[in-house]
C-alpha cells in the first residue's frame, strides 16, 4: 500500500471545491436565453381536473408559455413507468396505473403537477402559475394502505381493483405452517415502518436545452444515474433517441435514492424546451421536495416467529402491506419484494420463511427506494421480533441471537439469498465488548439514581448490496441489467483518467476510485482524475444506489486496470528486453525482477503513445475499458448496540451511547467509510426518534416543512463508537461488501429495542416521540405516571 | 416572494408615518417570521418598513431601579451576550440564548418577537413572568395587558414597540421544552420571585391563547418556593394547544414538569 493506496485515510479530493463553495450544481448552470419553469400543482389529494384556464397567466409579463397535460399527451410524451415487473401469486402482472408528467384528468396526490408556466424570470413564472385557474371537482381520498384495500374505499386507478397493485409471496407456505403447528413457542406482533421524506440537501433540479438545428437535447439534472435517465427518457418517454439526448449530472448534493428516478419535472423541462424553443430551468423549492420527491418506507406488517424446545427458530411468517402512494415510481415494485422479503432471514438460520406482500395505491406521494430500500424494513421487523421473542422466553437477547446465528458459509436462505461470507459472532462480540454490555446493570442503577430510565438494545443486521447479477435480477423482473462499466485512460504524460458509470453525490468516489489507481501503479491520487456523470463522456453506466459503487463500480475499474497493467507489462518487457512474466510494478516504476532495470510509469505511457517501438502487433495507446457483472449480491452485516436514557417526566429519549461493529469486507478509505456510517446511523436514529411523513385524512402532508418534519441534528446523536470486523467478499476482486446504507438499515431497531427495554413496554411505534414514549410509560406504569 | 416596497426609516416617527399610510404595510424588525412567510407567498405586504436602522430602538441600559431596558431592535444574541442582562437578570439572558439557532438569534429582535406574539415564542414568557413594561411610540403597557391572544397584541395599527423594561427579580428561571422539529417552545415556563416578593409563573408554547399565568402555582410558590410546591398543580388540558408534536394532555403535563424545573433552576 502506498500513502494514497487501498486502506489509506486519504482526505477527500472533492472537498476543496465543496468547502470553498465552488461545487457546480445544476442550478449553477446557465444557458443564454434560458427561461424558468414553475409548476401548477394540485392542492387536492384526489380530484377531477374539469378545466384549466391559462388566459390570465398568458397575458402576464414575461410569460412564454403555459403548457398542460393535454398538450403533453398530444405530443406523444409517454407515461412514467415502473421498470421492475412483479407478478402476483396468482400469476397476474402488477397493476400499473397511468402516470402522466402533467395530469389532464384526475390528480391523485397533493402536489401533482397539472400545468407548467415558462417565463423570463422565476418570479414571473411563479406569479403566472398562481394565475392559472384550475377547476377541480374534489373526490374522496384515502391515505392509509390498509384502509385503501377495504370495500368502499376511494379507488385511484381503474386497473387496480381495491387499489391492490400486486399480492405477492415468497417462500414455502406449507413448510412454514407445519413448523408453526409443531412450535414450542410462538411470538407474534404488529410492526410498522414509518414513512420518510428523503430530504437531500440539494433539491431536485433540471435544465433542458433543445437544439433545433441538431434536433438534440441536453439535460443537466440531479441524477444518481444519468445513463439510466437517458435510457428511460428515450426508450419509454419518447423524448428523443439516445444519440440525440445528452444527460449531465454535475455535482449533486445528496440523493439517498430519491434521485434515481425520472420524475415528471425533468421530462416536462425537456419537452417544454422544444415547445418553447428556449432552454428551460426548474429548481424545486423545499416544499416541492417534500411533496414530490419519492418517499420511503411506509410498511405495516404482522410477523410471527416459531421456536422449538431448544429455542431454535423453526419458521418466520410475515404479512406486509406496503403503501406505494398514488403511482408506481421507477423501482417501487422491487423495494417491498426482492429488496425486502429476501432479507427476512436476517443473520439467522431459519429453515422456513413465508412472506406475503400486498402493495397498495393511496392518495399520497409515490414511494420508492430510500437509503436501504426494503432492507431497513426487513431488519426492523426481524430485529424487533428477535428482541421481543428473547424477552418473552426470558433469554438474554444476545444469547438468543447467537444461538440462532448462521455460522457456515455459503448459506442458502429459504428466501433466494445465498450468503457468501460473514462472521456474525465476531461483530456481536466486538460490539458487546465496546458497549460494556456486561456492566449495563450498574449503569442502569446509576441512571435510576438520577431519575432516568436507562435501556439497552441491539440489532444484528444483514443487508444485500452490490446489486446485482444481471441475469438473476432479470429473472426476477428487472427491466435493466445491473452491471457497471469503467474505462481507464492513461495519458501520454502518465496521468490517468478513470471514466466510471458510477455517480458520486456525496460518496467520495473522486478520492476512493483514485486510491485504486494509486495502489495499482504506485502513483499519487493527485495524478488521477475521476470522470463521471455525463453520458457524452462516459461510455455507459448503471449509476449509484444500493451501495453498489464499491462492489460493482470499483470492480469494473479493477478489470480495466488489469487490462492496462497487462498491456503496460507487455510493452515494458519489450522495451527492457525482458520476459513479460518478470515485470513487476513497484513505486511507480515497471521493473525487471531481480535486476536494476526499470522504466517509470510515465515513460511507459509516453512510449505507448509515441508508438515508435512497440511489440509486434500491439496497438498504440494505453486505454482499456471493462464491464463488470457481479456474480452475487454482497452481504454487509454487523451488530449495533444502542443505549438510551429516558426522562420519565417528558418521555424524551437521549441516545447516550451507540456502538456499531460492521463487516464491510475490504475497506478502501476508512475515513470515508466512517463518514458513511455516521450519516447512516443519524438517518436511522432520525427514523426511530424524530422523522415522520404524516398525512391528514384529506391527504394533506402535514409535515411539509422543517417546522414540522423533524430532521436529526448534531445534538440529537451521540459521538458514535465505530469499529469494523472483516470477512472478505469472495464474489468480487477487491472483497468489498458496501457501506453506504448499513447505518440506516441497522440502527432503528437498536434504538427501539433500547427504549422499550428502558420503559418496560414493548408497544411502541416509530418515531418514538417524547409523547409516545410518555404514553407508553404511563400505560406500563400507571401508578408512577399518575404521581 | 411578491413585489413589495422597501423602506428604511431613520426615526420611529418616520416609521410610524409610513405605517399609517398603508393598510397593507408591515414592520420588519428581525424578519425571522415575516421573511419566510413572504418567501412562501403567504404574506404580501405592500410596504416593508425596516426598523433595524433606527438608533432609538437599539441598546441595552440599566435602569435607575436596578432593572434593564432593552431597545426593540436589540437582537436575541445581544441580549444573551449582554453583561448587563447577565448580571441583573441571568434568566432573561439564558432564555434569549435558547431561542432558535445562531442565525435566528443574530437577526431576530425582542420587539419583533413580542409584536408577533407567536404562541410558541419564548419572550412572552419572560415579559409576563417578570412583569415587564412595554414602551411604544404612544404609551406604556404592562406585559399582562400587552399580550391579548394568539398572534394578538394590544398594539394599535400604527403603534410601534420601542423598548421593553424588565425589573430585576429576586430570583427567576426559564425552563423550556423545545419542539423537536422547530425548536420553538412546546412548553416553556418562566418562574420568578420579584423584588417586591410577589411570585409569577408564566407559560408559553402551551396555551391556545398564547402566554398565560398559572395562579394556583403562583399562590403555592408564594408560601413555599420549592419544586414540590408546584408538582401537584395541574393545568387544564382544555386550554392547551394540540398538534402533531404534542397533544393538549401532553402539554398540560409539560407545564407542571417545566414549572418544577424552572423553580428548581431559580434556586
Automatic annotation (TrEMBL), chain A:
<protein>
    <submittedName>
        <fullName>Molybdopterin-dependent oxidoreductase</fullName>
    </submittedName>
</protein>
<dbReference type="Pfam" id="PF20256">
    <property type="entry name" value="MoCoBD_2"/>
</dbReference>
<dbReference type="InterPro" id="IPR000674">
    <property type="entry name" value="Ald_Oxase/Xan_DH_a/b"/>
</dbReference>
<dbReference type="GO" id="GO:0016491">
    <property type="term" value="F:oxidoreductase activity"/>
</dbReference>
<keyword id="KW-0500">Molybdenum</keyword>
<dbReference type="GO" id="GO:0005506">
    <property type="term" value="F:iron ion binding"/>
</dbReference>
<dbReference type="InterPro" id="IPR037165">
    <property type="entry name" value="AldOxase/xan_DH_Mopterin-bd_sf"/>
</dbReference>
<dbReference type="Pfam" id="PF02738">
    <property type="entry name" value="MoCoBD_1"/>
</dbReference>
<keyword id="KW-0560">Oxidoreductase</keyword>
<feature type="domain" description="Aldehyde oxidase/xanthine dehydrogenase a/b hammerhead">
    <location>
        <begin position="20"/>
        <end position="140"/>
    </location>
</feature>
<dbReference type="InterPro" id="IPR046867">
    <property type="entry name" value="AldOxase/xan_DH_MoCoBD2"/>
</dbReference>
<dbReference type="Pfam" id="PF01315">
    <property type="entry name" value="Ald_Xan_dh_C"/>
</dbReference>
<dbReference type="InterPro" id="IPR008274">
    <property type="entry name" value="AldOxase/xan_DH_MoCoBD1"/>
</dbReference>
<dbReference type="InterPro" id="IPR016208">
    <property type="entry name" value="Ald_Oxase/xanthine_DH-like"/>
</dbReference>
<dbReference type="InterPro" id="IPR036856">
    <property type="entry name" value="Ald_Oxase/Xan_DH_a/b_sf"/>
</dbReference>
UniProtKB/TrEMBL annotation, chain B:
<dbReference type="InterPro" id="IPR016169">
    <property type="entry name" value="FAD-bd_PCMH_sub2"/>
</dbReference>
<dbReference type="InterPro" id="IPR036318">
    <property type="entry name" value="FAD-bd_PCMH-like_sf"/>
</dbReference>
<protein>
    <submittedName>
        <fullName>Carbon monoxide dehydrogenase</fullName>
    </submittedName>
</protein>
<feature type="domain" description="FAD-binding PCMH-type">
    <location>
        <begin position="1"/>
        <end position="171"/>
    </location>
</feature>
<keyword id="KW-0285">Flavoprotein</keyword>
<dbReference type="InterPro" id="IPR016166">
    <property type="entry name" value="FAD-bd_PCMH"/>
</dbReference>
<keyword id="KW-0560">Oxidoreductase</keyword>
<dbReference type="InterPro" id="IPR005107">
    <property type="entry name" value="CO_DH_flav_C"/>
</dbReference>
<dbReference type="GO" id="GO:0016491">
    <property type="term" value="F:oxidoreductase activity"/>
</dbReference>
<dbReference type="InterPro" id="IPR036683">
    <property type="entry name" value="CO_DH_flav_C_dom_sf"/>
</dbReference>
<keyword id="KW-0274">FAD</keyword>
<dbReference type="GO" id="GO:0071949">
    <property type="term" value="F:FAD binding"/>
</dbReference>
<dbReference type="InterPro" id="IPR016167">
    <property type="entry name" value="FAD-bd_PCMH_sub1"/>
</dbReference>
<dbReference type="InterPro" id="IPR051312">
    <property type="entry name" value="Diverse_Substr_Oxidored"/>
</dbReference>
<dbReference type="InterPro" id="IPR002346">
    <property type="entry name" value="Mopterin_DH_FAD-bd"/>
</dbReference>
<dbReference type="Pfam" id="PF00941">
    <property type="entry name" value="FAD_binding_5"/>
</dbReference>
Amino acid at each position: 500500500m502506498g500513502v494514497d493506496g487501498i486502506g489509506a485515510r486519504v482526505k477527500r479530493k472533492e472537498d476543496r471545491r465543496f468547502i470553498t463553495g465552488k461545487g457546480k450544481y445544476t442550478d449553477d448552470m446557465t444557458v443564454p436565453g434560458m427561461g424558468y419553469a414553475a409548476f401548477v400543482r394540485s392542492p387536492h389529494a384526489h380530484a377531477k381536473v374539469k378545466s384549466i384556464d391559462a388566459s390570465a397567466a398568458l397575458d402576464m409579463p414575461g410569460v412564454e408559455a403555459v403548457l398542460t397535460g393535454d398538450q403533453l399527451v398530444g405530443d406523444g410524451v409517454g407515461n412514467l413507468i415502473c421498470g421492475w415487473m412483479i407478478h402476483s401469486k396468482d400469476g397476474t402482472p402488477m397493476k400499473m396505473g397511468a402516470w402522466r408528467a402533467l395530469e389532464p384528468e384526475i390528480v391523485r396526490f397533493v402536489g401533482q403537477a397539472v400545468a407548467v408556466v415558462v417565463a423570463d424570470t422565476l418570479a414571473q413564472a411563479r406569479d403566472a402559475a398562481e394565475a392559472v385557474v384550475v377547476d377541480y371537482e374534489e373526490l374522496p381520498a384515502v391515505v392509509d394502505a390498509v384502509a385503501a384495500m377495504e370495500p368502499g374505499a376511494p379507488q385511484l386507478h381503474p386497473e387496480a381493483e381495491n387499489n391492490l397493485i400486486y399480492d405477492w409471496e415468497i417462500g414455502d407456505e406449507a413448510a412454514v405452517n407445519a413448523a408453526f403447528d409443531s412450535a414450542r413457542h410462538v411470538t407474534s406482533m404488529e410492526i410498522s415502518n414509518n414513512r420518510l421524506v428523503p430530504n437531500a440537501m440539494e433539491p431536485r433540479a433540471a435544465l433542458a436545452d433543445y437544439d433545433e438545428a441538431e434536433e438534440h437535447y441536453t439535460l443537466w439534472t440531479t441524477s444518481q444515474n444519468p445513463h439510466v435517465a437517458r435510457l428511460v427518457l428515450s426508450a419509454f418517454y419518447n423524448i428523443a433517441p439516445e444519440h440525440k439526448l445528452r444527460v449531465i449530472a454535475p455535482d449533486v448534493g445528496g440523493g439517498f435514492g430519491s434521485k434515481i428516478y425520472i420524475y415528471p419535472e425533468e421530462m416536462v423541462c425537456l419537452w417544454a424546451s422544444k415547445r418553447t424553443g428556449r432552454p428551460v430551468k426548474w429548481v424545486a423549492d423545499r416544499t416541492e421536495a417534500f411533496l414530490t420527491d419519492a418517499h420511503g418506507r411506509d410498511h405495516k406488517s404482522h410477523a410471527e416467529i416459531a421456536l422449538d424446545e431448544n429455542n431454535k427458530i423453526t419458521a418466520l411468517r410475515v404479512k406486509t402491506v406496503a403503501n406505494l402512494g398514488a403511482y408506481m415510481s421507477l423501482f417501487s415494485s422491487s423495494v417491498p419484494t426482492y429488496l425486502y422479503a429476501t432479507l427476512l432471514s436476517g443473520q439467522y438460520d431459519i429453515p422456513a420463511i413465508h412472506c406475503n406482500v400486498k402493495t397498495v395505491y393511496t392518495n399520497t406521494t409515490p414511494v420508492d427506494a430510500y437509503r436501504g430500500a426494503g432492507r431497513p424494513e426487513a431488519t426492523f421487523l426481524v430485529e424487533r421480533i428477535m428482541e421481543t421473542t428473547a424477552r418473552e422466553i426470558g433469554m438474554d437477547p444476545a444469547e438468543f441471537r447467537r444461538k440462532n446465528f448462521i455460522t457456515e458459509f455459503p448459506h442458502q436462505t429459504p428466501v433466494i439469498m445465498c450468503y457468501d461470507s460473514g462472521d456474525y459472532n465476531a461483530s456481536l462480540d466486538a460490539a458487546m465488548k465496546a458497549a460494556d454490555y456486561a456492566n449495563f446493570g450498574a449503569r442502569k442503577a446509576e441512571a435510576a439514581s438520577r431519575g432516568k430510565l436507562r435501556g439497552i438494545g441491539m440489532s444484528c443486521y444483514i443487508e444485500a448490496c452490490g446489486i446485482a447479477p444481471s441475469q438473476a435480477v432479470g429473472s426476477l423482473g428487472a427491466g435493466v441489467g445491473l452491471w457497471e462499466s469503467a474505462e481507464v485512460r492513461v495519458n501520454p504524460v502518465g496521468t490517468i483518467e478513470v471514466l466510471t458509470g458510477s455517480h458520486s453525490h456525496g460518496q467520495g468516489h473522486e478520492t476512493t476510485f483514485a486510491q485504486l489507481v494509486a495502489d495499482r501503479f504506485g502513483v499519487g491520487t493527485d495524478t488521477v482524475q475521476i470522470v463521471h456523470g455525463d453520458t457524452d463522456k462516459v461510455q455507459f453506466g448503471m449509476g449509484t444506489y444500493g451501495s453498489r459503487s464499491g462492489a460493482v463500480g470499483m470492480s469494473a475499474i479493477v478489470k480495466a486496470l488489469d487490462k492496462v497493467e497487462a498491456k503496460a507489462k507487455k510493452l515494458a518487457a519489450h522495451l527492457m528486453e525482458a520476459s513479460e512474466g518478470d515485470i513487476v510494478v513497484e513505486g511507480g516504476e515497471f521493473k525487471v525482477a531481480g535486476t536494476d532495470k526499470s522504466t517509470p510509469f510515465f515513460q511507459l505511457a509516453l512510449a505507448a503513445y509515441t508508438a515508435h517501438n512497440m511489440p509486434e502487433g500491439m496497438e498504440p495507446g494505453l486505454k482499456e475499458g471493462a464491464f463488470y457483472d457481479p456474480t452475487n449480491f454482497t452481504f454487509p452485516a454487523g451488530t449495533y448496540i444502542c443505549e438510551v436514557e429516558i426522562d420519565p417526566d417528558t418521555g424524551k429519549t437521549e441516545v447516550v451511547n451507540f456502538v456499531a461493529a460492521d463487516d464491510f469486507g475490504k475497506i478502501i478509505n476508512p475515513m470515508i467509510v466512517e463518514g458513511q456510517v455516521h450519516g447512516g446511523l443519524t438517518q436511522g436514529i432520525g427514523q426511530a426518534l424524530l422523522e415522520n411523513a404524516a398525512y391528514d385524512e384529506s391527504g394533506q402532508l402535514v409535515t411539509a416543512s422543517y417546522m414540522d418534519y423533524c430532521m436529526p441534528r448534531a445534538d440529537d446523536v451521540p459521538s458514535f463508537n465505530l469499529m469494523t470486523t472483516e470477512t472478505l467478499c469472495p464474489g468480487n476482486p477487491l472483497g468489498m461488501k458496501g457501506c453506504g446504507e448499513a447505518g440506516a438499515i441497522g440502527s432503528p431497531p437498536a434504538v427501539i429495542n433500547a427504549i422499550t427495554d428502558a420503559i418496560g413496554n414493548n408497544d411502541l411505534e416509530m418515531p418514538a416521540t417524547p409523547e409516545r414514549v410518555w404514553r407508553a410509560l404511563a400505560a406500563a406504569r400507571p401508578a408512577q405516571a399518575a404521581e | 416572494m411578491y413585489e413589495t416596497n422597501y423602506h428604511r426609516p431613520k426615526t420611529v416617527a418616520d416609521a410610524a408615518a409610513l405605517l399609517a399610510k398603508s393598510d397593507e404595510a408591515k414592520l420588519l424588525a428581525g424578519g425571522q417570521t415575516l421573511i419566510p412567510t413572504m418567501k412562501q407567498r403567504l404574506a404580501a405586504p405592500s410596504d416593508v418598513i425596516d426598523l433595524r436602522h433606527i438608533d432609538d430602538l437599539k441598546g441595552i441600559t440599566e435602569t435607575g431601579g436596578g432593572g434593564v431596558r432593552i431597545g426593540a431592535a436589540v437582537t436575541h444574541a445581544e441580549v444573551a451576550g449582554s453583561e448587563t442582562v447577565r448580571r441583573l437578570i441571568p434568566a432573561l439572558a439564558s432564555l434569549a440564548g435558547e431561542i432558535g439557532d445562531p442565525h435566528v438569534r443574530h437577526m431576530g429582535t425582542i420587539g419583533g418577537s413580542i409584536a408577533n406574539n407567536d404562541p410558541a415564542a419564548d419572550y412572552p414568557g419572560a415579559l409576563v413572568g417578570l412583569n415587564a413594561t412595554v414602551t411604544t411610540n404612544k404609551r406604556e403597557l404592562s406585559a399582562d395587558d400587552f399580550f391579548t391572544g394568539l398572534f394578538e397584541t394590544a398594539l394599535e395599527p400604527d403603534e410601534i414597540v420601542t423598548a421593553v423594561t424588565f425589573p430585576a427579580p429576586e430570583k427567576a428561571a426559564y425552563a423550556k421544552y423545545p419542539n423537536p422539529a422547530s425548536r420553538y417552545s412546546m412548553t416553556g415556563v418562566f418562574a420568578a420571585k420579584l423584588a417586591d416578593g410577589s411570585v409569577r409563573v408564566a407559560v408559553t408554547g402551551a396555551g391556545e391563547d398564547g402566554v398565560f399565568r398559572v395562579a394556583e402555582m403562583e399562590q403555592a410558590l408564594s408560601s413555599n418556593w420549592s419544586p414540590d410546591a408546584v408538582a401537584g398543580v395541574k393545568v387544564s388540558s382544555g386550554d392547551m394547544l394540540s398538534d402533531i408534536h404534542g397533544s393538549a394532555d401532553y402539554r398540560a403535563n409539560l407545564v407542571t414538569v417545566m414549572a418544577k424545573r424552572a423553580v428548581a433552576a431559580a434556586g
